Amino acid sequence: MQNVQDYIQKNKQRFLDELIQLLRIPSVSADSAFSQDVIDTSEAVKTALENAGCDTVEICETDGYPIVYGEKTIDPNLPTVLVYGHYDVQPPDPVELWNSPPFEPVIKETETHPEGAIFARGACDDKGQMYMHVKALEFMVKTGQLPCNVKFMIEGEEEVGSNNLGVFVANNREKLANDIILISDTGMIANDVPSITTGLRGLSYVEVEVTGPNRDLHSGLYGGAVANPINALTKMIASLHDENNHITIPGFYDKVEELSQEERAEMAKAPFSLKAYQKALDIASVDGEKGYSTNERNSIRPTLDVNGIWGGYTGEGAKTVIASKAYAKISMRLVPHQDWQEITQLFKTHFESIAPKGVTVKVTPHHGGQGYVTPIDTIAYQAASKAYETTFGKKPIPQRSGGSIPIVALFEKELNSKTILMGFGLDSDAIHSPNEHFGVWNYLKGIETIPYFYHYFTEMKR
Ligand code: BES
Ligand code: MN
Ligand code: MN
Predict the structure, then answer these.
(1) pLDDT for 326-384, tens place per residue?
(2) CA within 20 to 30 Å of 25's CA: 181, 252, 344, 456, which one?
C-alpha cells in the first residue's frame, strides 16, 4: 500500500473537520423531535460517499429513516466488500452530565487518548467509525489503489432496532450481493492490544406492566390489604436470578453453547486487569454468574438486566400512595444458538406465571435479534488479521463482545455472507453514556488499517 500514512498526515485536519461537521447534526433516531436532523444526516452521508468516489449513491426510502446505499464497481470479476454502518445515534440524555454539549464536538486529551479524542454523541458509535470507511475509500480511489468492488449500506435506525433494514435486505439480495461484509461498530482491547471482534450477543428486549387496583390508592387506608404493584414487580424481578446469579426462567439455558475448557483457556489469555476494570467504574467488586470470569460473563454467557423501572410517585417530597401500575424495561443478552423469539416467549410465560394474586401482568416485546460468531479460519479473518499486523505491528487477538448488532445474523441468513468486525473504539469511550468520545489516533488508525484489509482480502481471494 503506497503512501497511506502520508495521505493521512496530509489530510488529517480535513478528515477531522469533516467528521466534526457530521457530528454536529443530532441524528437521534429514538426521538421524533430530531426527525429532520436524521434525514439531513442521510443527505450528508450521501454527499460524503459521492465525494469519496462512489459511482452511484442513492437514498433508499423505508417505512422509517432512509438507508444510504453507494457503490463503486471496478471489475465484476473481482471480489466485492459490503460496508455496513449507522448514521443514527443514541439520545444524549442526561445532557447535564456532559462536560461539553453533545452536538458541539470538541477535541480533548484523556488518559487513554493522549493524542486527543473527539467528544460528541456518535463520535465512536457509529459516525466516527463509519466515516473511517468513507475516508479509506477516498484514499484508495484517489490514489488508484482500490483493489476490488465496494458497496456501502449505511442505515439510520440501528439504535432503535433496525426494523426496516431487514425488509430492505430481503428485498435487495442481488443488489447487496458481496463476498464479505465489513463493519466498524465495535471495540478493541487497547491501543497497544489490537483485537478483532469475533462474537456479538443476541438480544431480547421486553417491557412489563403490572396492574393492581383500578386507581392509585391512599397507602394508609389500603396499604397491606391489597397487592402493591411496585412491591410485586420488584419481587418478581428479584426472583429472576438465584443466589448464584443464574437466570431462573425455565428453559433459558437449554440452547446455550458451552465452550470447551481449551476455548475458555484461550480466551483467558487476553490481557485484562480486574483492578483497573473496577477502578474505571468506581466499584469495590464485580458481580455476576458464579463460575465465570468477568470477560466470560460479558461475552459467552447470557444475561438479564433491568434497564429502567418506574411507577408511583417520584416527584419532590413525599406522597403516600399505592400506585395502580408499575413498569420495567428488561433486556436479555443472548449467546449463539439461543433464539431470541423463543427466549422472549419463555420470559413472557414465566413472568406471567409468577405474578402474585391481585395483580395482572402484561409483557410487551420490543425488539431483538440473534447473536453471531465470526469463524477465524477464513480468508476474510486472515486478511483482517494481517491488516492489523501491518499497521499495529502486532497480531490482533480474537475476542467476543458483549454488545449486539442484530442485523449481522440477518445478513448471514439473507445474503449468506460472513461479517468481519473491525472495531477501533475502546470500552472507555463511553458509547451510549454522557461524554462519548473517539480517539483521534483510533480514527486515523482505522483509516490506515482498512485499505490493507481490502488489499489482503483481494489478494488472498485470487
Ligand atoms: N455499536 C453498538 C453495538 C456494540 C458496541 C457491539 C460495542 C459491540 C461492542 C450498537 O450501536 C448498539 O448499541 N447496539 C445495541 C442493540 C440495538 C438493537 C439497539 C446494543 O448492543 O445495546
Ligand atoms: Mn453502533
Ligand atoms: Mn449503539
Answers:
(1) 999 999 999 989 999 999 999 999 999 999 999 999 999 999 999 999 999 999 999 99
(2) 181
2 pLDDT exceeds 80? no
Indicate whether 377 and 232 sit together in one domain. Answer: no
Q: Which residue among 130, 185, 200 is best mutated to probe the pocket of ligand 1, counting the most ligand atoms within 8 A of its Cβ?
A: 185
Task: For residue 402, give the ligand nearest its CA.
Answer: 1
Q: Are 387 and 453 in contact (CB under 8 A)?
A: yes
In the reported structure, the alpha carbon of residue 432 is separated from the centroid of ligand 3 by a whole-number distance in angstroms of: 6
Which residues, chain by chain, have CB under 5 Å from ion ligand 2? 125-126, 185
Mean pLDDT of 67-81: 98
Question: For the chain, first and last CA: distance in Å?
Answer: 18
What pLDDT sits at residue 245?
A: 98
Domain extent for 175: 4-200+371-461
**Domain termination site, one of 315, 344, 369:** 369
- Whether 227 is in a domain gets the answer yes
Instruction: List the residue whose alpha carbon is closest to atom 1 of ligand 1.
Output: 185
Establish whether residue 194 lines the binding site of ligand 1, counting it when its CB lies within 6 angstroms of any ligand atom: no
Residue nearest to atom 20 of ligand 1 (CA): 404
Cell numbers at 6, concatenated: 502520508
Mean pLDDT, residues 59-67 taken together: 98
167 and 230 belong to one structural domain = no
Would you state the cell numbers that stand for residue 46, as one nine-digit string?
Answer: 450521501
Domain closes at, from 314, 340, 369 = 369
Which residue type sits at 210?
V
Q: Which ligand is nearest to the CA of 399?
A: 1
Residue 273, number of CB atoms within 10 A of its CB? 9
How many domains does one find in the chain? 2
**Ligand 1 atom closest to Cα of residue 421:** 8
